[in-house]
Write a structure and sequence with these properties.
There is one protein chain. By secondary structure, the chain is mainly alpha-helical. The protein has three domains: about 5-110, no CATH class; about 120-240; about 250-370, no CATH class. The chain is about 55% helix and about 5% strand. The chain is built from 15 helices and two strands. The protein has helices at about 5-40, 45-50, 55-75, 80-100, 110, 145-160, 165-175, 180-190, 200-205, 225-240, 240-250, 260-275, 295-300, 320-335, 345-360, and strands at about 305-310, 315-320. It has a two-stranded antiparallel ribbon with strand order 1-2. Strand 1 (about 305-310) and strand 2 (about 315-320) form a beta hairpin. The protein is elongated, with a radius of gyration of 27 Å. The relative contact order is 0.08.
Length: about 375
Amino acid sequence: MHRNPPITETILAITVVGINGFICVIVSVWGGRCLAELYGNDLIFEVTKLGISAHLWSPVVLCVALALYFAAKIRQRNTALAFWILAVFSCCVSALVTYAINRPFATTTFRMGTQVPAPHLTYDNPPLPPFPLHQPPGKLYGADNVAQELTELETLAFHRHQTRATLEKLRVMWLERDPLRRPLIAYLMCQLGDRSVVPDVADAFFAGEYYTGRSIEPDGCAAGTNAARDSLRTLILYGTPHDHLKLMEFLSVPRARDPIFKAGELCHVLLDLSTNREGRGLPPGYPAQEFPLDLVIRCLDYTEEVEMNLDAGDGKWTSLRGCDLAAQTVQNVKGKYFGHDKYGSLQERDSAIEKIRRWWATSNSHTRIK
């Protein structure tokens, strides 16, 4: 006959379950908020969603496990074994939640640490020395990476009006630098009026040559991801109608057959280009009326989830679809509010999207792909 376990074992079992439950709730609630504040909404994996919602399901799971332990105790089964099973299980649950919340840190380099910033025009730089035509690319004022060099070249072109000399430098860089650097170089060349390399960027992008894990410093393994994004920016703003039609084809590919999620990336880049408050915005001098709204309107039909958005006010997560990002893009480009709010309910967002569709169908002033 089995003897009843000592009271200390029961207290210890309740304590172990309580501590692990407390860990799950704290990590889930505060970890989810920290993820949104530090890394935005792009790094939300399925396992991370599980961890974010752990404050809802982990207490139930742990209470069920504790109830099973008490059932074994009442039936006078092997309570020592039941106690250890309960302890190991509760620790595994808290470890899973902790791992799920920390999972996005593994890909931080793709969105933060190694993301190469696009060149941007800055007018408050200190005076620069004369343009060093005799120096090869990579030696401009001690530049140590392509982004830095392109920023300096952009300043020379726009601020010091040396466009021709800058283009000469860029053409040399195009030939000499790693192919993964070419989309960023092409982006600046297009801003200066030279679109001759756009077909090469398009061919490489649609052939999948930029989706590689090859590492280049200072980007690290994010070099391919950055090159693909720069290619998208170039093709969206400076590509041909044929390029835009091929980009639209991404939207018809089922999510299961799109492991790289090109359709979601397209929606993100369009939104990024439409605003300089939350994104990079349009390059200097680019006519806003030439923004390819046809491409954006097609994204209104893309209903796959592309990111999770956290409302800092109530701490609730909202699933944003490609059509939601497209609606935000239209509002940014046209400077007109159609009622779409990324924190709004699904019905409110769908109503605003339908309103945009009606506007597009009846407007005589919208921009068509040229």
